[in-house]
Amino acid sequence: MTAQPIIRFENVTKKYDDETTVLKNVSFELERGKFYTLLGPSGCGKTTILRLIAGFIEPTEGNIYFDGQKINHVPANDRQVNTVFQDYALFPHLNVYENIAFGLRTKKVKKDEIDKRVKEALKFVNLTGFENREIAEMSGGQRQRVAIARAIINDPEIVLLDEPLSALDLKLRTEMQYELRELQQRLGKTFIFVTHDQEEALAMSDEIFVINEGSIQQSGTPIDIYDEPINRFVADFIGESNIVPGVMVEDYKVQFAGKTFECVDQGLNPNEKVDIVIRPEDLEITSIDSGKMSVKVDTQLFRGVHYELSTYDEDGNEWLVHSTKKADVGSKIGLDFDPEAIHVMRLNETEEEFDKRLESYGAGRP
């Protein structure tokens, strides 16, 4: 028997008073105890989904269910949900203990119970001993932990996180990614994390929902999303990609860059126009004779763990390459790739738009 989803959106649309539509007929289900990420550019609708789950706003159309019960009009304070906001929303005049205890005090919880639960929450977020510390004396990462402790102290079924790492520096943000993921696994709660940072989403999530212009473009595990993007937007937004127009000649054969290559895709129509994605790390530098295509190296940057090369083929089309091998700027090299490295995507544009793009393809650098 399939477990009841903890959250279910059923054809949810959200419009504001000026008739701006921020969510368009969105449907999805979330399982209990997983780490979900809503990923997309600013204004795509991901924070609106979070606010709908929290109960801060209501859907214009459609229904939202929690454990099978419709919650469209259930107020925020009656939902088993707590939110960690981007600015943390801590009370500067209260110390760490009182910030975390605030929600319990408003519910008239007994002092001994408050003390017990605050200490448990502090232990969970590795802040034992910081009870009397003033918020102004805390670092960004410590304030983040205080906000999380305040969110989990009421033992909510769902913890919502609205871009909580965006204000931290890179090193601290990376550390907090590990801590958040470990905390979620220890608590066994459902975490729903909002970000526009692809690396955060890939590193932390059990499942990612890629959102654009109020619609879910694709959902799946980080590996699914990265390795098998469903359209140009997802491929371009998740990591770096070489995206070129092509033709699916037949099963396991695709044509792009003026040549026909073997691939692992099937089930498309013969000679169907498609988009081809090859990730930069899947391109191997080799000799011109050994490569499937030859390119000229235009620029090369050292990125710490690899070199990033901007190269151009004989038609002037750019190919981005990530490699542990160096190449001389201005030299010609071969590029090799496996059939599995070629990802074929159906078009999410009209054939007229595709043909126009195809005309411009090859009109790059001479």
TrEMBL record:
Keyword flag Cell membrane: yes
Keywords noted in UniProt: ATP-binding, Cell membrane, Membrane, Nucleotide-binding, Translocase, Transport
Classification via CDD domains: ABC_PotA_N
Annotated Pfam families: ABC_tran (PF00005), TOBE_2 (PF08402)
Domain annotation ABC transporter: ranges: 7-238
Annotated SMART domains: AAA
Gene Ontology MF, one: ATP binding
UniProt function note: Part of the ABC transporter complex PotABCD involved in spermidine/putrescine import. Responsible for energy coupling to the transport system.
Homology family: Belongs to the ABC transporter superfamily. Spermidine/putrescine importer (TC 3.A.1.11.1) family.
Record's protein name: Spermidine/putrescine import ATP-binding protein PotA
Originating species: Chungangia koreensis
Gene from which the chain derives: potA
